[in-house]
Amino acid sequence: MKYANNILETIGNTPLVKMNALVEDVDALVLAKYETFNPGNSVKDRMALKMIEDAEADGRLKPGGTIIEGTSGNTGMGLALAAIVKGYKLICVMADKQSKEKIDILRAVGAKVMVCPTNVEPEDPRSYYSVSKRLGEEIPNSWYVNQYDNPSNAKAHYESTGPEIWEQTEGQVTHFVVGVGTGGTISGVGKYLKEQNPNVKIWGVDTYGSVFKKYHETGVFDENEIYSYITEGIGEDILPKNVDFSIIDGFTKVTDKDAAIYTQRLAKEEGMFLGNSAGAAIKGVLQLKEHFKKGDVVIVLFHDHGSRYVGKMFNDDWMRERGFLDEEAAVATDLIKDHQDKPLVTVKTEELVSHAIERMRKYNISQIPVMDSQGLVGSVDESALFTAFLEDENKGATPIKDVMKAPYPIVASNTSVEEISKLIKDGNQAVLVALEDGKHHIITKYDIISHIK
Ligand SMILES: Cc1ncc(COP(=O)(O)O)c(C=O)c1O
After folding, report:
1. 349 FRET partner, CA 20 to 30 A, in 8, 86, 240, 420?
2. Is the shortest distance between the CB of 207 and ligand 1 below 6 Å?
3. Residue 451, number of CB atoms within 10 A of its CB
4. Which domains does the chain have, with CATH numbers?
């Protein structure tokens, strides 16, 4: 009979799968190292087990001990499986930007989960780096894993992932592309592959809001590059010891939007239901395509499974809210949807400048269409009133008809945003849209700016 003695023995030996539709424009053979075949559904099972085994071996982790780690979920899952089989307790400390599914999954495998705020400095006592470290100091018989700086992380990939890729490609691998978080995967695999063949090129995929790319290119740790981003699993605001910059040939940065879109495309066009960093990684491959030629063998490593992202990248409402869906071009009615229910504020030709000013103040608006019995006949805006005021401080008593400007252009409700923008650029302060019920509504510069994603 052939069987594993426990779930940990099924870690590793994941398949390489040829990419097809998504890489049509790439000259090289692109093969995915498909890590979701690991029992915890991610590459992190490998390093989680290795970190525990090494800590057991040198006495940092003792029988019945508590394992503590700051983890976005995947390392936690690997640690949880090993903790169950080996009889340890596990506390996972997570940042609150991580998907709820990841937290629920960790609880399902017996981990205690603590959630910390994302938008605080790593040194802040509330950050998940600081909380994990503190718990490690306070809880008796505990061991703080610290995947960022723990050398067993990269070593796991040096000993398993790297050799697997070398053997599966029969030494023909020419490029390795992978998202970088702690750096364990890229550094371990990269070191092994370069030792076999120094010509293998190692590319990291980074996010906007992370320090890696600039640091690699210039040696500068630029705090201005740090801001919160949506992509999960890759990019950092620290330099983990596991990132060995000397074996990385270059980084490419992928936007949150592209990473999300390509996560969906992997599922829909390749049947590869994978996590967000896989979307970033394959987009990274496409961004780097001029570096690959015919005959090259490019390995892209996909870290984790799509099930952890069903409430996010696989949820179109979530995608739409962030402007990540390239839907049909927006039209006039899309620009007014936030205030369409409010009546159009107007002023009559015979009313006075002071009335228009009062109305602008009351409704917090900067321009008003002017009406008479015939309909819309003119417009007043802040700049017209300001000019009038400069000419005569007592202009408040002047009738609107004496200071008004030309009426705003009227467009149909299905006019494109592009056309409306042109009308505003041509000097119109606003545009009126004719609605089906015969009424009009106003589109201002602010509505167009708000629409930009
Ligand atoms: C989903 C996902 N992608 C990518 C990474 C980055 O891998 P590494 O930490 O080995 O650089 C991680 C690590 O946390 C991850 O969880």
Report:
1. 420
2. no
3. 17
4. 1-327 (3.40.50.1100), 332-449 (3.10.580.10)
DSSP E strands, 318-439: 347-348, 367-372, 375-381, 410-412, 430-434
Q: Is-contact 173 190, C-beta < 8 A? A: no
Highest mean pLDDT, choosing among 209-218, 305-314, 431-440: 209-218
Q: Is the pLDDT of residue 61 over 80?
A: yes
Residue nearest to atom 2 of ligand 1 (CA): 233
Q: Closest ligand 1 atom to the C-alpha of 304? A: 1
Ligand 1 centre to CA of 185 (Å) is 8
Interacting residues of 176 by C-beta distance below 8 A, sequence separation 6+: 165, 186, 189, 190, 193, 200, 201, 202, 203, 298, 299, 301
How much distance in Å is there from the Cα of 127 to the middle of ligand 1?
19
* CA 11 – CA 5 distance, rounded (Å): 12
Cα 424 to averaged position of ligand 1 atoms, centre (Å): 46
Q: Give per-residue pLDDT as tens, 365-378.
A: 999 999 998 889 99
Q: At what angle do helices 256-270 and 276-287 cross, to 10 degrees?
A: 100
Q: Please name the residue whose Cα sits nearest to atom 5 of ligand 1.
A: 233
Q: Decide if 44 is catalytic.
A: yes
